[in-house]
Amino acid sequence: MRDGDGTDSGDGGEVVVRKRRKGIYILPNLFTLAALFGGFYAIVMAIDGRFDMAAVGIFCAMVLDSLDGRVARMTNTQSAFGEQMDSLSDMVSFGAAPALISYVWALKGLGRWGWIAAFVYCACAALRLARFNVNTAVVDKRFFQGLPSPAAAALIAGFIWLLTENGLRGDGILELGPFNLAVPWVMFFLALYAGLTMVTNVPFYSFKDIQMKRSVPFVVTVLIVLGFGVVTIDPPIVMFGIFIVYGLSGYFVYARRKAMGQQTSVISTSTDEPDERGLHK
Q1: pTM (2 decimals)?
Q2: pLDDT (tens digit, 9 = 90+) per residue, 156-177?
Q3: Which of 93, 186, 210, 259 has its CA at a distance of 20 to 30 angstroms from the CA of residue 111?
Q4: Are 45 and 38 in contact (CB under 8 A)?
């Protein structure tokens, strides 16, 4: 028979404790699944030849990926399941999807060199995500160890979006002043740069030390509004420009620390454990 405390009593008087079945928190995992859908949508759009929409799918996945961890903390619904789900979603949206899109769009024309570049990017994304998960407790939370996978994906997707919006195909020629560059080879080197930078020890600012709950001057709000306005002027070129700057910023931080004789590694430079275990690579 069932007692009032939720246990069962056997005929002999022994108490049998019934274990509750474990569940998952639906809210943060909905954001993670939505981010996964963004990556899947990007792959489908690339297969259909709609590369501008494929790039938009990657950027939407980035936004959703940045929200799941914050929603989990705000609602106190963090879980080990959510951490693993987030990593798997990131591998699809920021690892496999950009690699496949770049291959279908431009790298396919390079033959074996094209798929090698795509695979190097995809493999480096997997290595970067795995390293993040095992090092999350010992890395200074102010910096990422290597280029974050969403930012690497933004470099690939942003380049494709920018050229597609300007009428250039993946097999075309990019004219930069006196230089005429074959788009497939530009994509080749960009994929290698983004991929290999993910697995370096170069520090990239994480923005995790920004406290959203603190009060800020009114001018900060005005600047944020202006920032959104600038993005809407020409989203492809503005977004790609932002991530180009961010994709190079880590090397400037590394060079500055090296020149000043400071520690360049982000391992064990802080005694504070990162707030976002397993999230936001």
Answers
A1: 0.81
A2: 999 999 999 988 988 888 888 7
A3: 93
A4: no
